[in-house]
Amino acid sequence: MTLPVTGLAAAICALLLIYCAYATVKVRIASQIGFGDGDNPDLLAARRTHANLSEHAPIFLIMLGLLEMANAHHPTITIIAAIFLVGRVLHVIGMKQHHKGGSPRFRQIGVLTTWLTTIALALWIVYLFVTLHL
Q1: Phi-psi sector, 103: left (phi>0), alpha (psi -120 to 50), beta
Q2: What is the Cα–Cα distance from 63 to 24, expressed in whole angstroms?
C-alpha cells in the first residue's frame, strides 16, 4: 500500500524543515552563537520557527498516514493536508514578519490552520474508531 498524500506532505515538511534549519544556522553564524540563543532575538525567532514545525508536523503526518491507510476519502485528506502545508508556510513567513515588527497576521493564520487541520484529523480518527470498533 502506498501513501501518496502522506508521502508528498512529509516531503514538503522535510524541505520546509531544512529551510528553517538553514535559516537558524545562518543567524548562528552571523551572530557567532554556537549553542542556545545567547539572548539574541533573531536567533530565538529562528529557533522557535524551526521547533514549531518540528513539534506539529510529526503528529499531523502520523494521523494523515493512518487515515490514508484506512482508505479515508482521498480528496478530503488531500485538501486537509494542503491546508496544513499552506498554514505551515504562512507560519514561517509570519514569524519572520512579526519578529521584524510587521503584522502577525500570517503567523496567526498559520497557527489557526495548523490547529484546525490537526483537530480535524484527530476527530476523524476518533469517529472511525467509535463507528468501526464499538
Answers
A1: beta
A2: 28
- Measured distance CA(17)–CA(2) in Å, rounded: 23
pLDDT at residue 32, rounded to an integer = 78
The pLDDT of residue 101 is 84
Q: Say if residues 71 and 1 touch (Cβ distance below 8 Å).
A: no
- Looking at the 3D structure of the chain, how many domains does it have? 1
Strand ranges for 51-119 from DSSP E: none
pLDDT at 61: 98
Contact between 99 and 47 (Cβ < 8 Å)? no
* Angstrom distances, CA of residue 97 to CA of 39, 101, 124: 19, 7, 34
Domain range enclosing 96: 4-133
CA dihedral 78, 80, 85, 89 (to 10 degrees): 140
Q: At 81, which CATH number?
A: 1.20.120.550
